[in-house]
Specification:
alpha+beta, single chain, globular, 26 strands, six-stranded antiparallel β-barrel, six-stranded antiparallel beta barrel, 700 residues
């Protein structure tokens, strides 16, 4: 017999569907046209689809359901919501949806939306998984939603299995063990073995293909991540606090909770924490300010679990996500040790940004979490040496945090990003920090088509693939899928006030393309305004044409530029007029501290192959101007601006940041920066070859 969690007992072979169905159905809503008023009166229109409460007053559904016909009020899309326990429909506002519209009847991934109730209403919520997985389970899953019938609307449910995944966008392929009637889109998909929601039902498969599709809830991590008011953190914190409060509420013990159900299912029998311990820990973590960055969170979990995150799904970004990554870090006691250390690290993490709550409240949350660690360790009868080590680690981390808080920090834009070359005897250059690599390659012989791949650099210097696409038209406008891949790559590498730089690798024929002008959001800042953007040339590769002498000179120049002075040298312009480039032997013989600058484009008298000639003369740091429609009559401002920028940077490791600041200044309305329009930087580390187009990259 198994303990039921509410004072009774039940057979071990009880159907988990019977345990979970009442909880999931109670939190499932039907979505339809918004009511005419806010009093909930009036008839309910035909449902557009389903959704479910993930936190108090927050409904998760599909974007194609939420945006089907909701009217705009003051810029907001409004919908109607009906569910158990309320009389009449209520009004909700679509706070986020991705994508914002379909194309040709198709809604690409993630096809998710969050709806906020305009007026708070009491209601139950589902339990969202904190794990990161591609398929989650091979066991049966259940789905829930609402169905339109001749007699009205009825809730409907079914069972099926997950047969695999479709593509790399977190789409789960559902088997055809049951039908997926119209109206259930947007409903929850529940893992029956673990007792948690793992997906959002998206659609039936097209004609001739069986089963259905669901979107993994992990795709919620694609929510925008602003410094202030992070919607992802706000909703998930509310989710975890809700379930922790329900678990602690002994006054209403007869009301079943998801934690009770998970205990009945023995959902965490192979895990270190019981369902009760897990909900308590997640509730305590939800009271802390969010992690400083996805990168810091990954470094923390990697240190504890011994494996970095290399998945193609969105990386963990909250404390609950990091906890989910620890499952499987070890069996039994070993996993508990890791989880307790993680809780200590979360409670003592750096918090230099102003918290969204009073400092005293944060300190109290940290103290309660550390007290939970002590109590759990003692209750599990872990060895005293381990408990002592936990306390010593906690004290050491608090001392380090206090010391760092007293240290100097960047105060101005000029200081927030510098590629520190490290000690003189170390390998200089950009690789001292992480960066994002975007490769763009013409697609075979198809003119106007190209392939792309986005990678992060791992801590060991290896490239980790985020996503790739083929046969895009252009290059021109930013393709949506490439934009999503860049957003994910940046989120994994960005630090507060220290955006990760972007390297764009292009063949010589495409170096004229100003990819730094792409914007990730319509009307938003360009990539070049948001972060350092530099270029590398992939075809032809100048190093492939080097003699031993030029190869040695190339390496010597790279080292010289990263440890000492730099001298800007405008090669193709004198007194505002274009002039031929110096001969090859003259280019090769220039001072090793030279940074070549190309002022003129072919349209203004410059040589079409000037950039290639300079590259093949042993230069890997080059500034040049792109073709722009409007240029000042003379070049004096450009010459003086380049001289200030290069000499002011000090060494080449700071030059990408200096160019970034120039790009950001016009966007901020700063005067005197118009000379820098169209300025591009070639910054190609000769020590760090790019991955070949066919090279396998680690993606798992």
């Amino acid at each position: 017999m198994a303990w039921t969690g509410n004072g009774g007992a039940q057979p071990m072979d009880v159907d988990p569907f019977e345990i979970l169905a009442p909880l999931a159905a109670a939190a499932t809503v039907r979505i339809h046209e918004a009511p005419a008023g806010y009093d909930g009166g009036g008839p309910v229109s035909q449902p557009w689809g389903s959704g479910f409460f993930v936190a108090p007053n927050w409904v998760l559904t599909c974007a194609h359901v939420a945006l089907r016909g909701g009217r705009a009020e003051g810029g907001w899309r409004e919908v109607g919501l009906s569910f158990q326990g309320v009389d009449g429909p209520v009004t909700g506002r679509v706070e986020w949806a991705q994508p914002e519209e379909g194309a040709g009847g198709s809604w690409p991934a993630p096809d998710l939306a969050l709806i906020r109730l305009v007026e708070p209403v009491s209601h139950p919520c589902v339990w969202l998984t904190e794990r990161t997985a591609k398929v989650f389970t091979r066991s049966e899953v259940a789905f829930f939603g609402w169905l339109e019938t001749p007699d009205g609307t009825e809730n409907v449910s079914g069972r099926c299995t997950i047969r695999g995944e479709l593509g790399t966008d977190g789409l789960l392929k559902l088997g055809n063990e049951d039908e997926f009637p119209e109206g259930v889109s947007g409903g929850p998909v529940v893992d029956l073995r673990r007792g948690e929601v793992i997906g959002v039902l998206k659609a039936r498969r097209s004609a001739g293909r069986d089963g259905g599709l669901a979107t993994s809830v992990v795709q919620l991590r694609r929510l925008p991540a602003p410094v202030v008011d992070d919607l992802y953190q706000r909703v998930l914190h509310a989710h975890d606090r809700h379930h922790a409060e329900r678990h602690r509420d002994v006054a209403h013990f007869a009301e079943r909770t998801w934690t009770d159900a998970q205990s009945d299912l023995r959902a965490t029998a192979d895990r270190a924490l019981t369902p009760g311990q897990r909900v308590e820990l997640l509730g305590l973590l939800a009271e802390l300010p969010s992690p400083l960055s996805t990168r810091r969170l990954d470094e923390m979990v990697t240190e504890l679990a011994g494996r970095p995150y290399h998945g193609t799904l969105p990386a963990p970004r909250g404390w609950r996500d990091g906890l989910g990554r620890l499952y499987g870090a070890g069996e039994g006691t070993n996993e508990l040790w890791t989880v307790l250390r993680y809780a200590v690290h979360a409670a003592t993490a750096e918090r230099p940004r102003p918290a969204d709550r009073p400092r005293a409240a944060v300190a109290d949350a940290e103290s309660r979490l550390l007290a939970w660690v002590d109590g759990t360790a003692a209750g599990a009868e872990l060895p005293r040496w381990f408990r002592t080590a936990l306390r010593l680690e906690q004290e050491a981390r608090l001392r380090e945090r206090e010391a760092r808080a007293k240290g100097p920090g960047p105060d101005t834009l000029a200081d927030v990003w510098s590629f520190d070359p490290g000690p003189p005897d170390g390998h200089p250059g950009m690789e001292q920090g992480p960066f994002v690599l975007l490769e763009i390659t013409p697609h075979g012989w198809e003119r106007g088509r190209y392939d792309w791949r986005v990678c992060n650099t791992a801590g060991d210097g290896e490239f980790v693939s985020i996503d790739e696409g083929r046969r895009e038209t252009g290059p021109g406008d930013l393709p949506p899928r490439l934009g999503a891949a860049l957003r994910e790559a940046f989120r994994r590498g960005d630090e507060p006030d220290r955006p990760v730089p972007l390297q764009i690798a292009l063949p010589y024929s495409l170096l004229r393309f100003s990819a730094e002008d792409w914007a990730l959001t319509p009307g938003g800042p360009s990539l070049g305004e948001q972060r350092p953007v530099v270029f590398r040339c992939t075809d032809p590769i100048p190093e492939d044409q080097d003699s031993e002498e030029v190869r040695a000179l190339r390496l010597a120049r790279w080292a010289k530029l990263h440890v000492g002075r730099m001298v800007p040298d405008i090669l193709d312009c004198a007194d505002g007029r274009s002039r031929p480039l110096p001969e090859a032997d003259v280019l090769v013989g220039r001072d090793p501290a030279t940074v070549p600058v190309l002022c003129h484009t072919p349209a203004t008298g410059g040589e079409p192959t000037a950039l290639l000639r300079v590259m093949t003369s042993g230069y890997n740091v080059i500034l040049w101007r792109r073709e722009i429609t409007e240029r000042e009559p003379g070049c004096g401002d450009f010459h003086r601006g380049v001289d200030r920028t290069v000499t002011g940077a000090g060494h080449a490791g700071r030059l990408p940041g200096a160019v970034w600041r120039l790009r950001a200044l016009p966007g901020a309305g700063a005067p005197g920066a118009s000379w820098s329009r169209g300025l591009a930087l070639l910054y190609s580390d000769p020590h760090r070859p790019l991955p070949g187009a066919d090279d396998p990259l680690e993606t798992l």
